[in-house]
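User: Fold both of these, please.

Assistant: Here is the first one.
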Amino acid sequence: MRIQSLAGTWEFRQVGTEKWLPASVPGGVHTDLLALGRIPDPFVGDNEKRVQWVAESDWEYRTSFRCTNGLFSEDKVLLVCDGLDTLVTVFLNGDELGHTNNMFRQYQWEVKSFLHVEGANDLLIKFSSPVKYITEKQTIRPLPGVPQAIAGGPHLRKAPYQFGWDWGPQLPPIGIWKDIRLEGFSAARIIDTKIRQDHNNGKVFLEARVTVERWGNMTLKAVICITAPDGGILKKEIAITTRDLVILKVPIPKPKLWWPNGYGAQPLYQVEVSLMRRDASHAEPLDQQRFQVGLRTIELRQQEDQWGRSFVFVVNGVPILAKGSNWIPADSFPTRITDQSLEWLIHSAAETHQNMLRVWGGGFYEDERFYDLCDRYGILVWQEFIFSCSIYPLDIPDFLENIRVEVVENIRRLRHRACLALWCGNNEMEWGWVEWNWKDSEFQVLKAAYDRFFHHTLSAWCHSEDPDHSYWPSSPSSDTPFSDPNGQRQGDSHYWDVWHGRKPFTSYRNQYPRFMSEFGFQALPPLTTIRTYADETDWNMTSYIMEQHQKNANGNSIMVGQLLDTFRLPKDFSSLVYLSMALQAEGIRYGVEHWRRYPNRVAGILYWQLNDCWPVASWSSLDYFGRWKALHYAALRFYAPILLSIEDTPPVQTVYVSSDLLQTWEGTTKWSLEMLDGEVLASGQAHVMVVPQAATQVCKLDFSDRVSDDNIRRLVFIAELWQGDQLISRQTAGFAPIKHLSLSDPAVRIDLHREKGQLIAELTSQSLALWVEVSLTNTDVVFSDNYFSLPPGRTTRISCPLPPGWSLRQAKKEIHVRSIYDSY
């Protein structure tokens, strides 16, 4: 086999213009125009509105190339396009090869007869406007979708979020968004390899079912080479006789199992499957495929119990508490996502003890880098097919066939992954049919089509292509069509009454889902990020630009309203930004801590959302640039394997310890009732023993006789969890709303020193400091902890890498701290 890349420098132009401009492939029209300075940055100010013409126009890309030596010696030469976005006609040397209408598919054409052996070959790819296409389709057949999007997106197999969402801009890209190349083959090629595992009493067999396409009479063999994590190599080969399917099954000696983050290691085996001439052991392979495999079993266990039916992921026989978040595409323009930025996001999730990401159905199927990283970091993937919050024309045979090819390709691409946990049909569409007033008579035929597709057709495709992973029809769902899809007796749940319904954070404590796959609360991004899109003159929650970077209806008003329910009116915009992040962290903490007190009932918690696709006010814990918001630091604490939490129902304070560990954990809880200045009114301690994967109530303390109208605003309850002389966790709870507390200047003191390239900060305070934020001016660092409570009489030690080129003296000059007291 021979491969000739066609990626690199191309030319492009708007259809109807004469001048060709330089372009990068993979890439897109927006990014190419931006690189040339021909459009303003769509992420700044309201420039999104100024570049709408780009997606409303038709474009064309071209390149000229000579075939590499040896390519024409192959029997077949294919033009392979891994991703064309989206409505495309392809021409080679003036001949039309074909059309495309699905950005999620790979397209191939046999082109040997069209290529010039000598001289240049001209490849021209014409792109039609996706906006014009969906607008025309929507005029003929209106389909409901999200109100923030350009209407008509469901008519086209293109990433839904690119047309706009309640956190994302209307910036649908156009272009060659994945690799493009020529592939040459002789005699035969591999068209599918299905990797499966057989686990039985500690023994593991790895099986490769190899399907080939061949032409001619050459005798062939398939060879599998498995490289173990320790470097050991296993090989097996088998002749391919009359059939075009062969099975290679290899026993794995001393198999090393793959585990989700927090439950064990992630050893990975490298698998190489080669198609060879049978009589030429040292020849180059005719074709070859490579896979990264982790040895593990996984099941979605659903069993009847006292609360309904469980929803538990079980890995290697061990029930897993799924802790994580929802993943959206990391950029509005996918070709800008770098290896470094992608790893930073996945690494940051793993650092906060997350073990699952839900790849939401309004984006796209991620590329191999994403799943490689999830394999490495132990992040299970709830993988959705790309349907979200809309009615799709699933009654059109050609549309269904297009989807079938898309589904089969992506299942085959991902089914071997250690990280893959579940195939899910769509996001919120079943809930939509029940709750979103999709009642018009003309939609009923589409409701029946929905039922057929997501409860029967797609399920059958998944089972046929990947019998080793469970299929779930929608999120949320009860698994019974249109029957209580967002209930809490079975299946998964989305809970949005706090944000959209404006209920208090305490309402989370009335929810007992079997698996909470979505809930969230917004915050502004850090001020450093806001500076990238808004001038200081726009730093007001009601300014035009701030609302342009808030895509949820009334989002800023909801944020401010809830903020004033919790905190005092901030003194300036910087304080408002800080308080919005603290508020978000406080709200999500309420929910997670509550659900972790009931691990036998609630088997998964995924907050919305991990990341952003542009700089915006949103529900994310990591902003567009990967900066940690207060919520991400809070996740470091509330997703910890051992969790100390306080259920505060003043004047009663109840202390819990929750454990994800697979062994019994023992320690000591120390508690105290104190004045804000540190005067201790009462204290105590209790031995704690938590059995594996459980939660225990340590104590329930009623302070009715200690709390009065005179002191209620000056009291704090403090709980600490210790193991020996090591402080594991500290929590605080008040008896009055934070905004009513009689906080005084905590006069936080920071002592800095340097240890082995780390900046060590030891913090103390004279009175209670809440949501203590530590930062370094003009640089981004991640501290070992941040946005924490600091009672007087204690020392909190945190660390971060000393920024390159910084001295300790500079760090002392640039370090800053603030708490709630400093915000008003």
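And the second sequence with its predicted structure:
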Amino acid sequence: MQALQGEVSGIQFIDEDSAEFFVNTDGWADVHYQIGDGVQQNVRLQKTGNRQTLYLNELYQGDLVKYSFTYIDQECNCAVDSEVRSYIHGDGDGDGDGDGDGDGDGDGDGDGDGDGDDTGGQIGDTGIQDKGATSAQFFVNHSGWADVHYTLNGAGQLNHRMMLLGGVNKFEVNGLSAGDVINYRFTYWDVACNCAKVTEWATYTHDGDGDGDGDGDGDGDGDGDGDGDKDSDNDGVADIDDLCPNTPLETPVDIHGCSLVMDVAEVSINNRFLIGGNGSESPGFALYVFDGDLGSSGSNCNDKCTDNWPPLLVNDTAASGIAGLTTITRNDGSQQAAYNGRPLYFFTGDLLPDDSNGQGEGGSWWLAELTGGGDIVPLFNSSTPLEPETIIDTGDAIITRFADRARDRHAREDQFQAYDHYLTFYWEHRTAQIEIIDRVAKGGDDITINVVTEWELGQPEFRAFYRGINTVAEYYHNVLLDREPADVTRYSTTINYNSKEARALQIGDRMEMEISQFLRDPPNGRANYYGTTVLYIVGQGGLVPWEARGVFGNPSTEREDSYPIPSVGWLGGNTTLPYQYSDEPDNHFMQMASNLAPQNGQVFVRGRRVHHSDFGDGSHNESSENPNFSELANKLGSQYINRSCVSCHVKNGRAPSAAPGSDLSQYVVKVGTASGEADPLLGSVLQPKSTNGSPETTATLSTWLEEDGLRRPVYNFSGNSPTHYSPRIAPQLVGMGLLEAISEDSIVALADPDDSNGDGISGRLQIVNDPQSGEQRVGRFGWKAGQASVALQVAAALNTDMGVMTSIFPQPDCGSVQSDCGVNGSELSDKHFNDLVDYVSLLGVSARRDINNNTALQGEELFGSAGCSGCHTPAFVTSAYHPKAELRNQTIHPYTDLLLHDMGPGLADSLPEGNASGSEWRTPPLWGLGLGASISGDENYLHDGRARTLNEAILWHGGEGERAKQAYERMSGAEKNALVIFLKSL
């Protein structure tokens, strides 16, 4: 009974048919409970002395009661939601499991670990437990940050940030001996009350008896002096345990001696208003500005004024949390945070984090509001010039226009693996513009095919209506296109007969076709090529992504004949690619959109050449037969990360995760100050390579630390170590043009910064400045949605990743005290830049697979019921105003809302970006998820590649993703497998 009475809240046995809920608080308290499979009840508890209680009657022995509480915590003066717990009504001992200790494990020792020894378990929310002869582990059972403060045998106090894994903060102390005495307490962030808490001092005596040192002196540090405290970099972690030696002085470290990601931000944001951050004295409370400070360089609220309006003080080196923060010096010498030059204050009349009682006080005090973004300007509108439509209804015909490229082999020839790849000189004379004029759709009886090539054809072959009896490239209809006498690059043929069915053409006929490009004496490269296998449905207009049915060689089946993929599989709308049958899974992210407009075929391959070219020597990465691109040579920046786009985005896929000891050559390491401004010594992005002079700092992955099946990276820096940084792995590129085409209204409609619907998800817009127009845009691209358009994202990558200047970003990335950054001025021509942007924008999206698989369909239902779709929005219809016809008015399934979400401290970094805090990330799209490992050869997920499986990626979700993660954890093994199969079908 006493074990329960000492808790803040719980339930205790009264007699054989009753129990009592209790919460030890003077304020109000509600209990939410369910008996067995009954309906949940929500009841206000009654005050009894300094407790809140409620009797529960008519219970039977063995009844299961699930319950949680909502109550006022006097310490933080805030409402707290407890976790859901279970109670089994028992025989009078008050604990529900019959062992008399109240912990529910049945062993009688009261520690909850089931071993009966009364020492090994984690008793309560905080404490320390024996981990062996020479080690013990502190723990804090809260999902926010936690610090441990301790002394060993009366020596000086040590302070360490603990490591959060699996919802528990842990810190291990090594080198202990039997009888060692540790005095300790904790400071931790309680996410339930959104407040920091400090525990009382406690004492632990170690009972281990082994030394485990290996050098004979009994201390385990290897220096032979017997004291066990050798610490070369003075970070508080002995060298024998230090995975990150030479850490700069005063750097906060974890138990392994590696730099900590610490949230010391004084300012955060709630619905575009500023609030106190975790590093402030009142986290979550509203911040105000004072009209009396206008025109002043300091604060005019001093002395008695601060009784009601305490300033937001800065106790570290700088104000941090959002961009635009500075500090001012107050009359007493303290540092106060200011936003856009205006000092920030709390109001003592605000009793809860959501209060704004100071608004308008005295006509001089106002809520501090985030500036920039009040007037979001769409990328496109009704005045945007549009490229020509690709599907046109003329009244007497439906016209479909698309682009094609030369192919090595045929689509179904898996023995050659030579259909989806690109041959030498692919950008030269090897695309075609094709037009289908379908008169059958309007009551006519024929279809005309017009073809325009970049070079004269020697043998203009055209094939239609798949046969597939002798080969997988056999057709019923085989003709030579008619040449246009006045232009040797123009060809045509007219069809009025379905030779497969031996009848006239009808609406609904499946007309698969292929156009070969047998070039006549081209100046470079080989002459003979095939074309793309496309499927056209007569009378419908537009090409459709296709799947092969049946088995080749089995005449009783369809022999791999093509049928439309059901529309549920069209993840990228009409850009969606057919399924691949050439056994080239690593090439599937490099394909033209299926509906690529005829004028954009040559643009696409030119842009691809830019993507695959080295900005140092102009060489092409795929074949030595491809000549150097001289117009791109000698443009590599003074400081850079990689020499070409494809060096990071290999085959347009996600980069592999780094191996321990390797540099981050396929990552971008963003760096800056606490407020998100550029690092004075390094700029905004770490550039570890240089064409002249000394390179910037090099970042390496020191190791992966693993606990409870999850791993997190530990980084090491040489040279000037950044104080705030954010390593981000190169993402896949497909679908970016479609994301750009989603209207701003569609994104804004999903934002819920105040969580007004109570689902625990409060997605926020990232508002960014357009450097070309100066207008405020919705951020869409990058791990924190830092860029508004594909062009801006590409220009930013050229600037920081390769040091290539463009007309958008003509200045190199450079810190305020940094030199040798390179010269100003655009280097890459707008033509080559625009080709690259169009190439990235018009990549085809792979179709969803397993759309009839019952397990995958079950997983799709679980995806929705678990709440995953609360952030990973399944579908959009793109804007009618995007300039590219391929991207307009498309029904797409990206599974993203493009909003920022707080994913909790486990995934947080130390660098804010724009409106995004360290723990906020843009929801990544999920299309192509199941193909990523085939592209890169490495399965990894999340912004730094830490998750090796989708299961791990889900388990890393915290913050706004916590509920969905918990729903996943409650699933059976079969249900979890179904969810993963669904995700891999995308």
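DSSP finds 13 helices and 55 strands in the chain.
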